[in-house]
Amino acid sequence: MSHNYDNWERIVEAVLRREHDRELALAHSRESSFSSSIISDPSSPIHDNQNIQLGSSSDTENETDWERLLLSDYEDIISRCLGDSPILLDGGKMSFHIDKTTGKRCAMIGARKLKILWGEIPEFWKLTLHEDSRFLTVAELNQVLRLDIRGQIDTNMLSPRTRYAAYLVHGFANSYEGSPLLVNAIISNRIKDGDAQKQASLLHLGPPKDRNGNIAMRPDKWMEVEIGDFCTDQEDNSVVEVRVWENKQCLKSGLIVEGIEFRPPNANIVIFPKKNVRKKRNGS
Predict the structure, then answer these.
(1) Residue 181's domain spans which residues?
(2) Phi, psi of 184 (to 5 degrees)
(3) Interior/surface letters 149-176, b for 16+ CB within 10 angstroms, e for the rest
(4) Are residues 30 and 122 in the same domain?
(5) The pLDDT of residue 167
(6) What does the alpha-carbon distance between residue 39 and residue 52 come to, in Å, rounded to a whole number?
């Protein structure tokens, strides 16, 4: 990769924005007979929106250079996001890929990007390496009485007009102690904490088992539990919050949290190549 790609995250962000505008343009074209003329018209709202997001005449020369780079390598960058090679964003705190089956965007918020109650206190939680994780570190529970984990994602990272499910991706250390966790879970960006209890669902975080009594694992050797689902709007200016928490205090340890994943229910689970993880770690 040439020196032009040193700021890979910035390029990907621009690609996502352009892809979002393209999907919206296609949706408009199906809904109205004159959409094609609107999209091709430089004075149209869609065209103006692209200029605002990706650089306009009022932007700096540097921003213009980035847009020129994006245009010349657009298809190549999108192809790199397809298939079995998710990419890391936000300093390695989030992963992103496009599902080959559905063509929809999928993202995972890593443990370092989550808001974990007492997560910054080493006596309660610790960040540690994990050989099966796509991220540099995961969060391992040392010992705590109450679990409370929150995560947020901007819907412009996801495909518009799409049903998504959120999954807590986790595991258990050999030192795990405590009964299977019964937790509350909710997805919302408008419900206050005081009202969350009334609308939350109950989840069991104990190791899930299949019909034969074996622990059910994902292809990437993690476990997951579905927190809930939601639909993205056509607009890309909202934030979805996910929360998993306990009301009952019970001493526990050994829970490992990799992150919260957002993907359509019919999308495939992608395994992050370990060779990429090593490369990221050595270069970080």
Answers:
(1) 88-283
(2) -90, 150
(3) bebebebbbbbbebebbbbbbbbbeeee
(4) no
(5) 96
(6) 15
Given a contact cutoff of 8 angstroms between Cβ atoms, the answer to whether 12 and 152 are in contact is no
Q: Which of 52, 47, 57 is nearest to 14 (CA)?
A: 52
Whether 262 and 159 map to the same domain: the answer is yes
Q: Are 256 and 176 in contact (CB under 8 A)?
A: no
Shared domain check, 12 and 114: no
Which pLDDT score, from 0 to 100, does residue 35 have? Answer: 42
Pair 47, 118 in one domain? no
71 and 162 in a common domain:
no
Question: DSSP secondary structure string, 74-141?
Answer: HHHHHHHHBSS--EEEGGGTEEEEE-TTT--EEEEEEGGGSEETTTT-TTTEEEE--TT-SSS-EEEE
| Residue-level pLDDT at 73 | 55
Q: Are residues 157 and 231 in the same domain?
A: yes
Q: What is the pTM of this model?
A: 0.71
What pLDDT, on the 0 to 100 scale, is given for residue 39? 40
pLDDT recorded at residue 46: 36
Tokens for 6, please give them. 């040193």
In sequence order, the β-bridge partners of residue 244 are 149, 185
Q: Looking at the DSSP assignment, which residues form a beta bridge with residue 164?
A: 230
Residue 92: its pLDDT value, please?
92
Query: What is the pLDDT at residue 206?
Result: 72
Task: Tell me, yes or no, whether 94 and 162 share the same domain.
Answer: yes
CATH code: domain of residue 208? 2.60.120.260
Query: Where is the domain boundary, 32, 63, 81?
Result: 81
pLDDT mean values, one per 10 residues, the chain (284 residues): 48 64 59 44 41 42 55 55 72 92 94 96 95 94 92 92 95 77 79 72 77 81 92 80 88 93 94 56 40
